[in-house]
Design a protein that fits this description.
single chain; mainly alpha; about 75% helix
Length: about 290
Amino acid sequence: MDLLTIIKAIILGIVEGLTEFAPVSSTGHMIIVDDMWLKSQEFLGKYAANTFKVVIQLGSILAVVVIFRNRFIDLLGLKRFSSKELAAVPDGLPKEETQGRLKLAQVIVGLIPAGVLGLLFEDYIDEHLFSTSTVLIGLVVGAIFMIIADRFAPKKAKIETVDQITYKQALSVGLIQCISLWPGFSRSGSTISGGVLLGMSHRAAADFTFIMAVPIMAGASLISLVKNWEYFTMDALPFFIVGFISAFVFALVSMRFFLKLINRIKLLPFAIYRIVLAGVVYLIWF
């Protein structure tokens, strides 16, 4: 594999890492960048290239695990942490004590809807929805949903931290997450918007989104990897490894930055960006 191909893997990793946890659709960005400029299908093949766009998310998942490591250890019952330790933002500033505690069962409840639909329609999504045109639709419709969420959300959030989320709210966010199976809509965009409409603060909705992302993204990546194992060769392995490392590094940086800002800037700036991006890509592509 030549240097130019490795550079393409780094670029796709950067795109994935910078956009995975912002509500702008990382998959949509990778599809647009790849279809318009990098053309990974030409040297990986269609199915291996599509799988790369899913598997590379494992790098971003690792970044989530690093940042929320106390939370995951607590959820798995390996060690108990105080509410302040669990609610600490990435820069180490603790929030107020909370009486409740997010449970693993609540995370599972939120995962079930999208997990089931993802398994049922994975082949259809890979075959028909991984294209620039479908991504543009997802970007615009998702942006409208985000604007609605900011416009009609309760003025004062009832849920300030993930430890206050109920089972019903977890299921509702999980149902809303199903629309993110359409590339371009954005997992974080749909779940944060849905959480905000349900009375969560933007930060609480973002935290719950990222915690749910780990099992569902890991599962989707591993399933795609197993199903398309025949399309992988030793020549393609460096491409995947470089993309993984690149995605991890840039996800780690961008996620910390995003979590510090989300309660201040909310969703509107991301919605505007999505609409502008869709318009520019439409003019260039079509």
